[in-house]
Structures are given as structure tokens and as C-alpha cells.
Write a structure and sequence with these properties.
The complex is a heterodimer of chains A (about 210) and B (about 425).
Chain A lengths: L4 H7 L3 H26 L3 H21 L3 H26 L11 H24 L11 E4 H4 L3 H7 L9 E2 L2 E2 L7 H22 L11
Antiparallel strand pairs in A: 2-3
Chain B lengths: L3 E4 L6 H13 L7 H37 L16 H11 L10 H20 L15 H9 L2 H11 L3 H32 L4 H6 L16 H15 L11 H4 L9 H26 L20 H27 L7 H29 L20 H4 L2 H5 L3 E3 L7
Parallel strand pairs in B: 1-2
Helix pairs in contact in B: 1-2, 2-11, 2-12, 3-11, 4-5, 4-6, 4-11, 6-7, 7-9, 7-13, 9-11, 9-13, 11-12
Chain lengths: ~210, ~425
């Protein structure tokens, strides 16, 4: 006879644990599977399609973690951005009806080394964060300093530096210098680069009767 | 004073939770048993599928009737009696029995996948759409943004259909659609930003609840820029769902049928279900962002909307209101389709970058200036008016920790209750 006690114990667990885990594995598998498919595929447009699937599954992972805004951002910017990639894939590389790309052996080696190094770095970092291995119950109140999440960076971006907080009898001191100004400077710099790129890439119209 | 982070995990908010707990109580399981939640999710999905499918059934019939009347003829009259109301069903039967063709030059995977991709994008947008106070499959804190982001994905189906068909007409249609959608996402986002800045939230339920009361509370009467923004929004919305006069991707007179030239039968009809679904979503978005969402012009149900049981009646009336407003939006789209001639591609792009983007940007600046200076407008003449921004999300409003100390609340999208 099969013992069902353990099975029913799993089913009776609160929704948040079982289904989060199930969906996490589903979307993680989708992300990784389609990412590998992008590398192995030869047709540019199909590649872009698999990239859409990978990025959408990543968005689903963000949503699953409760970060709806970042999930929607991921869809808007990265999945939507793939659209442009797709168009360029069709328009700029199409020599025949269906384009297929061949990857040479050297490119495989370079790609494998770069990817391996990046993966090693990310994996080490991910394992070394203590807070990511700790389980918090719903409604738990934790100090920002104790959790070691990205929350301090996010707060610092809007002007509240948790690491340089000054305690005074009247509560926390007024807004200390955050990272907002450096962030804005970088954004404007990016805009300048974009305008420069558009300027360089524009079509140079040759008027008739004038030499280039 | 400490900085606190409150973590909320699990627990689905709103209508889904109520349904799930009800199902669990029927099956005499504990209230947070997973089975109830799975069944509740399925119920939500099936209901929304019906909104798209039955909606398409009605809208296609309406399209024929309205086009008939505009062109001084009757439209369908025979099938199903007096108004030809079974015409769409007859069409559906015809489409099911049609042979499923695929050109020899087509890319089989992309060709087969494209219609489902379009439909999935349209359907996903429905998941975050509230039909009444809290009546959404998933109430998201960033609802407006999510709907916009997901609606933008519908174009993938069109492009892949255009590319995968292996036909020149289809490819032209797909490329036109891509250029159009990439351009129109910019003014569409800017237009949505204007009501969002007034409300101070992206949560569609909260935006809807802020417009309770007399019709003068609707956001369109909030300041003089709102009607202009609404017109720009409606234009961009029509362009982004690929409706005439912006239906260059189909352009029957030039491209045979554009991106769906090679499609027949059920796959073809899935494209159209997606199109009518998207029309519904953008009209619904217009209703929520500008026309008071599920609130009628007079606050008839205001007195019972707070009571624990009668509020469901108020919500039902609200849902009717909301669908009525949305159907009016779709009707206007049909009306415009049969009135205006199709634009050329350069006119479409000019319309976007030279008119819609500057208008939206100007109205955004104007609205911000109007709200900052606190100038009065029609909405402010209402007696006993709640100022905009007084309705907040649950966690920001009455969480004692959040309001007293400088804490960060990390929570899942919660229902405004």
C-alpha cells in the first residue's frame, strides 16, 4: 500500500509555498530552455522568437517575485525591444527568403569562455548573498540594513541614504545627497550618445548635380 | 527611528481570493488550500475567454450592421431572424469547416504560431483589466503600465505571420505594422501618463475609484487638457490595434489582405478574435482613464457600495456601466473605420511624430502645471468633492507603520478594500 500521508501534507501547505515553487521551476526551465534554443538556432527570426520567449519568462519570474513593475518594464523594454531586433534581423540581413546564420568554431570557443566567466561570476555572487537563502514569513518586519537587498540602492536613488543616516532627536535628518544626480547625468549622457548615433547613421541625401 | 521593510508573500488579493475561499468551503477544505485557488484562476480565465469570444461574435455582427447603415444598405438580415444576429455564428461554422492551408514557401513553425501569439497578447491584457471595483483576474499595482506593455506584444503575431507566410504581400504588411506600432507606442504611453500623473497611481482599480460620484468627477473634466489628450489617446489606440484608417498592415486595395493573405479558416479567425479583443481593451482603458470607469453619470449605487453584501449588486451595476462604455468606444471605432479613408504610410508616421507626440507632450506639461497651480475647472464645481489623490491603495492608506515611520512596504498588488 502506498502511504499518502506525506503527499497530502505537501498539498495542504499554504498556497504561497507550493505554487510559487512550481511556477518558479516552470518559468526558470522556460527561460533556460529558450535561451539555449537562441544559441542553437540558425534562422535569425526564429532566434528572435526564442529570445522573446526567454525574456517573457524572465518577466514572469519578476512577477512571481511580486515585482510587478519590473516585470512590466521587462516586457515593455526588453521584449518590445526584441521587436526592433526582429525587424532589423529581417530587413538588414535578408539576402534570400529565409536567412540562416552559421557559427564558426572560433566563435563557439569565444562565446563559451565569455559566457562561462559571466556565469561563474553571477553564480558566486548569487550564492554569497545571505538574505536570498533566508525565508521570511508574510508580514515580517525587517530592518533594511539586516536584509541586504537592493532596497538601500533604490532608496539612495531617490535621495535617502540608509548607510549615511544621521539620527537626531527629531527623527532622521533631512534628505542626504543620494545617487539621483549621478544617475541623471548618466541618463543624459546616454541620450547624447543616442542622438550622436542617429546623426551618424542618418541617410546622406545626395542632391543631383552635386558630387559626394 | 528605524527603517522597516514589511514583506508580504503569497495571498492573492481581491475577487480571486473570495472565490477560492468559497470553493474551498464548498469542498470543506481549509480556506487557503491550493485547489480552491487553481479552480478560481480557471474560472477567471474561462470568463475572460468568453468576454473575448462572445465580444468578437457581437462586434463582428455590429461591424456589418454599422457598415451597412453607413453605406445606406441593410447589412445581414436573413440568418437567425430579424436582424441577422446569427450571421457571425454562421461565419464561424464556415471558418471551422474551411481547409487549413499553408503555403509551401512558409516557415511552418512561425506560420502556425503567429495567430496564437497575437491572441495570447490580447488575452493577457484582459488579465489586469478591472470590470468593476476589484473585479479583475489580477489587480496589479502597475495595471495601466502592464496593459500597455502586453498590448504592444500583439504586433509580434502580425510580424511573424508576415515573415513566416513566405509571401511578398504578407511581408509588406508585417513591416508596415512594425513601423507603425514601434512609432505609436511613444504617444500612446505619453497619453496614458497624463491621467496617471493626475491620479498619482498606475493601479487601474484606484484610478477608477477616484472618479466616483457625479460625472463631473470623471478625469475628462479634470482640466482643459484632458479632452485633447483623450482624442490623441483614441487616435493612437486605434493605430496601435491596427484599425482603419490605420489598417495599413491589411490594406485590401494594395496588399490583397496584408499579413493574413495566406491564412484561412480557424487561424485567420483567431487573428480577428485578437483584433476585436484588443479593441475592447483599449476602449476599456479609455473608459477607465477618462470616463469614470465603472461609475455611472449619477452616483445611484454610492450608498450601498460600501456594505459587505450589497456591494456586489453595486459592482454588478458597475460592470454593466463599464461594458456599456467600452462598447460605445468600440462602436465609435467601427464608425470611424467606415467613414474615413485609409492613410498612406508616410501620413501615418507623420500623424504620429508630428501631431500626436507633440500634442501629448504639451498636454502632459499643461496638466502638470494646472495641477501644481491648483486652478479650478469643471470637476471642481461639484459640491463635496474628494480631491484627486485622496483614494489610495490599501497599503499606502491605512498601514499604521507605513504612515508613521519612514518604512518601505513590499507588498503584492492588493485590492483597494
Amino acid at each position: 500500500m502506498t502511504d499518502f500521508t506525506e503527499l497530502s501534507a505537501v498539498a495542504m501547505l499554504p498556497l504561497g509555498i507550493v505554487w510559487h515553487t512550481v511556477f518558479f521551476w516552470v518559468f526558470a526551465a522556460l527561460t533556460s530552455g529558450f535561451a539555449i534554443a537562441v544559441v542553437l538556432e540558425k534562422n535569425v527570426v526564429r532566434m528572435a522568437l526564442y529570445l522573446i520567449a526567454t525574456l517573457s519568462a524572465t518577466a514572469a519570474l519578476f512577477m512571481l517575485a511580486g515585482a510587478h513593475f519590473i516585470g512590466a518594464m521587462q516586457i515593455m523594454i526588453y521584449v518590445g525591444g526584441t521587436l526592433v531586433l526582429l525587424i532589423f534581423g529581417v530587413m538588414l540581413t535578408a539576402q534570400s527568403a529565409f536567412v540562416s546564420m552559421r557559427t564558426s568554431g572560433g566563435e563557439w570557443v569565444t562565446g563559451a569562455i565569455l559566457g562561462g566567466v559571466l556565469f561563474a561570476m553571477l553564480a558566486t555572487n548569487a550564492i554569497s548573498v545571505k538574505a536570498w537563502r533566508t525565508y521570511y514569513k508574510e508580514g515580517t518586519q525587517v530592518s533594511v540594513d539586516a536584509v541586504e537587498t537592493v532596497a538601500p540602492i533604490g532608496l539612495a536613488l531617490v535621495g535617502i541614504r540608509t548607510d549615511a543616516r544621521v539620527e537626531s532627536p527629531s527623527g532622521p535628518a533631512a534628505i542626504q545627497s543620494g545617487y539621483l544626480l549621478p544617475f541623471e547625468i548618466i541618463s543624459v549622457h546616454l541620450l547624447v550618445v543616442l542622438i550622436g548615433a542617429a546623426y551618424l547613421a542618418r541617410t546622406k541625401v545626395q542632391l543631383p548635380g552635386r558630387s559626394a | 527611528m528605524r527603517l522597516n521593510v514589511i514583506l508580504f508573500f503569497g495571498k492573492h488579493p481581491g475577487a480571486k481570493r473570495i472565490v477560492a475561499e468559497f470553493i474551498n468551503s464548498l469542498l470543506s477544505l481549509s480556506s487557503d488550500h491550493a485547489l480552491g485557488y487553481v479552480v478560481a484562476s480557471l474560472i477567471h480565465c474561462v470568463l475572460l475567454l468568453h468576454v473575448i469570444a462572445v465580444g468578437a461574435l457581437v462586434f463582428i455582427w455590429m461591424e456589418r450592421k454599422v457598415s451597412g447603415r453607413i453605406q445606406d444598405r441593410l447589412g445581414p438580415t436573413r440568418v437567425g431572424g430579424r436582424f441577422g444576429w446569427l450571421q457571425t455564428l454562421a461565419d464561424g461554422l464556415k471558418l471551422i469547416t474551411k481547409e487549413d492551408l499553408m503555403p509551401g514557401a512558409a516557415d511552418p513553425l512561425l506560420f502556425r504560431l503567429a495567430p496564437y501569439l497575437s491572441f495570447a497578447a490580447s488575452f493577457t491584457a484582459f488579465l489586469a483589466l478591472p470590470f468593476a471595483d476589484g473585479w479583475a483576474a489580477q489587480v496589479l499595482n502597475v495595471g495601466a503600465f502592464f496593459v500597455l506593455a502586453v498590448l504592444g506584444l500583439e504586433v509580434f503575431g502580425v510580424i511573424l505571420a508576415g515573415y513566416g507566410s513566405g509571401s511578398k504581400w504578407s511581408l509588406f504588411g508585417g513591416m508596415r505594422e512594425a513601423a507603425q506600432v514601434v512609432s505609436y507606442e511613444v504617444p500612446l504611453g505619453l497619453c496614458v501618463l497624463v491621467p496617471v500623473t493626475v491620479c498619482g497611481t498606475l493601479n487601474l482599480v484606484t484610478i477608477g475609484n477616484m472618479q466616483a460620484g457625479l460625472f463631473t468627477n470623471w478625469l475628462i473634466f479634470q482640466n482643459p487638457f484632458m479632452p485633447i489628450v483623450f482624442l490623441a489617446f483614441f487616435t493612437c489606440a486605434m493605430a496601435s490595434v491596427n484599425r482603419a484608417p490605420f489598417d495599413l498592415a491589411e490594406a485590401e486595395s494594395e496588399l490583397v489582405a496584408g499579413f493574413h493573405t495566406e491564412y484561412s479558416g480557424l487561424r485567420w479567425s483567431i487573428f480577428f478574435m485578437a483584433e476585436y479583443g484588443s479593441m475592447f481593451v483599449v476602449s476599456a482603458l479609455a473608459a477607465i482613464l477618462f470616463f469614470g470607469a465603472w461609475h455611472g453619470p449619477l452616483p445611484v449605487f454610492a450608498s450601498i457600495s460600501a456594505s459587505p453584501y450589497l456591494m456586489h449588486i453595486a459592482n454588478l451595476a458597475g460592470c454593466t456601466n463599464f461594458i456599456l462604455k467600452t462598447v460605445i468606444g468600440v462602436t465609435v471605432m467601427i464608425w470611424i473605420r467606415w467613414t474615413l479613408p485609409r492613410l498612406r504610410i508616410d501620413q501615418v508616421i507623420t500623424m504620429c511624430w508630428k501631431y500626436c507626440v507633440p500634442i501629448a507632450a504639451f498636454c502632459l506639461v499643461g496638466t502638470v502645471a494646472w495641477e501644481v497651480t491648483g486652478l479650478p475647472w469643471i470637476g471642481d464645481m461639484t459640491p463635496n468633492r474628494n480631491p484627486m489623490g485622496s483614494v489610495r491603495e490599501h497599503w499606502a492608506q491605512d498601514d499604521p507603520v507605513a504612515s508613521t515611520s519612514h518604512s518601505v512596504v513590499i507588498a503584492e498588488g492588493r485590492r483597494n478594500d
